[in-house]
Amino acid sequence: MTTPTFETLGLAEPLLRALQAEGYTTPTPIQAQAIPLLLDNNDLLGIAQTGTGKTAAFALPLLQHLSANKRKTQPRSARALILAPTRELAIQIGDGIKAYGRHLNLRHTIILGGVKQHTQVRAMARGVDILIATPGRLLDLVNQGHVRLDQVRHLVLDEADRMLDMGFIRDVRKIVQAVPAERQTLLFSATMPREVAHLANEILQNAERIEITPKTVAVERIDQGVIFVPGRQKRALLAEMLEDPEMKRVIVFTRTKHGANRVAEQLEKQGVNADAIHGNKSQNARQKALDNFRRGRARVLVATDIAARGIDVDDVTHVINFELPNEPESYVHRIGRTARAGAAGTAISFCDGSERGYLKSIERLIKRPLDVIGTVAANDDGDDVTEDRAPRRGRPNGNRNGQKKGHRGNQGNNWSNSGDKNGAKKHGDGPRKGAKNGFKKGPKNDRGGNGSGGNGQKNNRRRRNRRPEGRKVA
Ligand code: AMP
């Protein structure tokens, strides 16, 4: 089969020109599959996450339909409606529409919460071709009579599972009810919980289904590893790792908003430019943090899962899971922030004793164990160390040179991905670089240190499981 091009997918010339300007040469798999189906007016169920190119996959056919059937916009109305769960995602979709539609004469606007409604009401007065909105504010404006949905002919629900997580599903249902039944409907979701499947059933008609599995995104281009580290030593470890200049643009994930603030503050104190982004921050603060990060004014962005959904910043070199997510799917979303647009990337997860269950769930989802790239021994009696998962020789806190146990200064470690200088990343071949600072990076998938891999690893795990819990390495 020949590889499709944007041209052979059936896109019109003004769109092709815009794609060229964006530097897109080849359609991503979801684009190759979805664009012809959507141009053909089908409904679509897309199981895919951000990072797969799904925005262009739905935006390009949408722009083509709207420009081919040019109609005057009606006051307070939209011809197409795109619903997104977060403000960041809505803004990014808006950026995509603007970029891909630059040679078309179509109007779009964004409606989202957290800012005054006045400008949004004004932008809707004449009507738009494309409305991108978060559900809560949209429903609010619909109820106030500022927005009408009876002209909508194309409806896109993006990140439906996140809508569910954020409690938007009822609002979404109400919005869908206000949209005429005669329409094209697209639903995208990274995962398919039961409620999302029900929703898809209700709103789609004879939909085509496309599934871009997260594991291809996760495994192929991202160098993933875990460091076992007691909770209270995570901040010191993070600070030390950030001394590596190869960590140029880093997203650090925490589970809580409070945790994100704390980590960002700590990094700032240590002279690392860092911003936090989470749901308690105002829209302006979030946008400012994102801009700072995008422009390189902040090297580190500390984020919670919800705020990070849809963050689309190129050249993120590293994702660090300061805390593991309790939903394994979030792991895949998080690490998808690196290795965007075909680049390689590195994802490092910190795992303390209480998070091993989360680690197991993640490994089950991605169908492979994470490489153990280091173990930090407890520096007091407060925390246990994960001896049963990591090789002893990996412990970083040895007191060679008479150094104090616990956190040590950076001695030239290297946490960058194992790609060569041409950007080609080797995966799974050759030995891993040894770290010079004592965080030894073991051979890939080295969990038990017996070097036997395969069954040996399994047996080793079984043997280790018989050990009394809580023994310390240090
Ligand atoms: P998305 O999954 O829509 O968030 O897109 C992820 C990233 O990939 C964005 O930065 C897009 O600009 C980029 N992208 C999307 N499609 C392509 C393509 N065909 N070629 C290169 N980059 C792309």
What does this structure look like?
- Helix content is 36%, strand content 15%.
- The protein is of the alpha/beta class.
- The protein is globular and about 70 Å long.
What's the arrangement of secondary structure elements?
Elements: H1 13-22, H2 29-39, E1 44-47, H3 54-68, E2 78-83, H4 87-100, E3 108-111, H5 118-125, E4 128-133, H6 135-143, E5 154-157, H7 160-165, H8 169-178, E6 184-189, H9 194-203, E7 208-211, H10 214-221, E8 222-228, H11 234-241, E9 250-253, H12 257-269, E10 274-277, H13 283-294, E11 300-303, H14 305-308, E12 318-321, H15 328-335, E13 345-351, H16 356-366, E14 371-375, H17 454-465
Parallel strand pairs: 1-6, 1-7, 2-4, 2-5, 3-4, 5-6, 8-13, 8-14, 9-11, 9-12, 10-11, 12-13
Helix pairs in contact: 2-3, 3-4, 6-8, 15-16
The structure holds adenosine monophosphate (AMP).
Can you give me a brief rundown of this structure?
The protein is an alpha/beta fold.
Largest sheet: 7 strands, parallel
Q: Can you list the strand order of the major beta sheet?
A: 3-4-2-5-6-1-7
> Which kinds of small molecule does this entry bind, naming each only once?
adenosine monophosphate
What is the number of helices?
A: 17
- Number of beta-strand segments: 14
Over all CA atoms, what is the radius of gyration?
24 Å
Assign a percent range to the helix content.
25-40%
- The residue-averaged pLDDT reads 80
- Could you say what the CATH topology of the largest domain is called? Rossmann fold
State the end-to-end CA separation. Answer: 57 Å
CATH architecture of the largest domain: 3-Layer(aba) Sandwich
Strand content: 5-15%
Uncertain residue ranges: 381-413, 416-474
SSE-based structural type: alpha/beta
